[in-house]
Each structure stands twice: as C-alpha cells, then as structure tokens.
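pls read this protein.

:::
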Amino acid sequence: MTPDQIFSLANLLAALAWLLLITLPRRPWVTRTVTRVAVPGLFAAAYVAIAALTFFGSAGGFSTLDGVARLFENRWLLLAGWLHYLAFDLLIGRWEVVDAQQRGVPHWLVVPCLFLTLMFGPAGWLLYRIVRAARST
C-alpha cells in the first residue's frame, strides 16, 4: 500500500471511531474496546512499523524545527506522524467521554469538545477542562 492509501484508510477508521464516540458514548464496546484499544492499537502498530522501517537513516530529526521539517519531507514519516495524532487525539477524546460520564457532565456539553479535540487536539482538551471545571462549581 502507498502512504496515501494508508492515510485514507486511517482517516476513515478514525472518523468511524469518533462517530461512535459521539453517538454511542455509553456503549462499553465503544469506550472499552473500539476507542481505547482496537483503533488506537491499530494506529500504534502501523506507526511503529512505519517508523521502524523508515526513521533511521532519514534526513532530519527532533532537535530543531528545521530538522523536524526535513524529517517530515519523507511521506512515510509524515504518515507516521499523522497516525500518532490520530491515535492520541482519539485516546484523549475517549478520556473526555469517560471522565464526563464519571463526573455527570452532560454528553451534549462534551460533543463540541470532542469535535475540537478531533480537529485541534489540545484545544479540545482545554475546552473540556473548562467545561468540566464550570460544571463542578
């Protein structure tokens, strides 16, 4: 498979996982299996395989911004970086849903946080923390 094909498949799988998280947040198979283990695990396995096969010997590195830019000129490593984002953003979104359930935060207040977490990671986490804090006062 090409990086573009894997990218498309990963995005589709991520979209389905996020849709489940938004529409079926109280189903244990969604929060305990799909969004906690299965999908992030698949992304992690693909990430490890791609990184192991392409990272060493690649131009660039993590010590400077220019080095990171050179590293991500390699489409395989760019894909690995994308898979990293997909996995961790989904794990954060899953945490938001489970944490909200435990704290009694209504799901309708979490949905905008989930969308923001999907699109802009840390911004969604920050919004959820604000919503959570506002609900606990």
Summary: Residues 3-136 form one domain. The two ends are 51 Å apart (CA to CA).
